[in-house]
Amino acid sequence: MLDRSIGEFSRFIVIALGTTILGFVTNHWWLALCAGLTLYLFWLLYQQKRFDRWLANGRRGPAPTSFGVWGDISDDFYRLQRRHRKEKQKLHSMLRRVQDSTSALREGIVALEDEGNLAWWNPAAGEMLRLQPDDAGQPLINFVRDPRFVEHMYQRMLEQNNKTQQPITLPAPGDESRTLQVEVTRFGQDEALVIVRDVTRLHNLEQMRRDFVANVSHELRTPLTVIAGYLETLQASGQAPRNWERPLGQMNEQTARMTSLVNDLLLLARLETSERGRGRDKISVRSLMEQVAEETRSLSGGRHQVSVHCAEDCTITGDAGELHSAFANLAFNAVKYSPDGGPIELHWRVDAAGGHFSVKDSGIGIDPVHIPRLTERFYRVDAGRSRESGGTGLGLAIVKHVLLRHSANMSVSSVPGRGSTFTLNFPSQKLTLPSSA
């Protein structure tokens, strides 16, 4: 920049000296100097006009050629044009490669802009969601009208941070026999990326598994009831030989355990297949906790100290039976895994995040490595101890499904040898405080 200023100043000096010398020759040096400088000024204005016209026409073609300061500016613009053209070609090439690669994916990808309007999608998404080229610019919820997707989309677009959220499963638009899994990820200001997967085969296999478990469990109830009846009759009649007492007792225990397992499997099958949010009961938390505490004392047989701490009563909207099952499972587990004489505390508190029911025990505790898998079916931290206590390995799986149906979640804190605390966290929209009622 300094070199250009010096060069332009040098040109100015040369023109001034040239016109002055010409003026001395003609004896009109002042008139010659003014004429020369005026011509130079008009030439600069003319070059500026040409450059302004080129800019106003959208910079089509190369910049106008010249010399002097405007020639340097034209050369700079020419270099910028070349650099911009190369970067533009590179971006076009990269975009073409991205589009070609996404077109080869089996998953559908949809790019949204302007708070949910269609910007671009690959062929797989167009086929699964039945999108046409003329649909660009329209809201995606015009084509996927499932209320769950609309709610999911609304929540994702309103989020300030990209926190993890589970994808949703819904029927394909216009084809109820096809099942899609949709996940929305927000990025930028008002943009989002929608990933669509065809999970029809997995959905059908999962449905077959549920139906099989439900049917087998239902069919097992009748023979188990018959076997348990005959065993009780034999034990009560006193007609069985003495050497049969121990085998009959073991058979009775295993029949009761098998019955409990079948009942848990049937409950899980019902939780998985029935519609979410169907329960509209108003359940008093204090009454539910007192009922669960009484059942826990009965199961303990006086071996544990069960206490209830409910600072503020409120009601939960949901299914009374399912919530009782979730609360009771945690309390019964505390009895099974706590030593005799140990305290079991049932707590309820309400804060800005919602309501929190927790069960605190002084049992054997859980190693942190096992905590992420506690809600898996039949997962046991200590298989031998679980069988001795009569557990089926399905209690926490039932709790997880109950919480999913009530938009709640569970957190676990535990120290091996010092006990555990299981906490059920319910959102505030599920609660009704006495003051608001």
What does the model show?
With 437 residues, the protein is α+β, with helices and mostly antiparallel strands. The chain folds into four domains: 2-99, no CATH class; 105-198, PAS domain (Beta-Lactamase), CATH 3.30.450; 203-273, Helix Hairpins (Orthogonal Bundle); 281-432, 2-Layer Sandwich (Heat Shock Protein 90), CATH 3.30.565.10. The chain contains eleven helices and 13 strands. It has helices at 2-26, 29-56, 69-103, 123-129, 147-158, 200-237, 245-273, 285-300, 320-336, 383-388, 395-405, and strands at residues 108-113, 117-121, 168-172, 175-187, 191-198, 281-284, 305-310, 315-318, 343-351, 354-360, 409-415, 419-427, 431-432. A five-stranded antiparallel sheet has the order 2-1-5-4-3. The protein has a five-stranded mixed sheet with strand order 7-9-10-12-11, covered by helices on one side. Helix 8 (285-300) packs parallel to helix 9 and helix 9 (320-336) runs antiparallel to helix 11. The longest helix has 38 residues, at 200-237. The two termini are 75 Å apart.
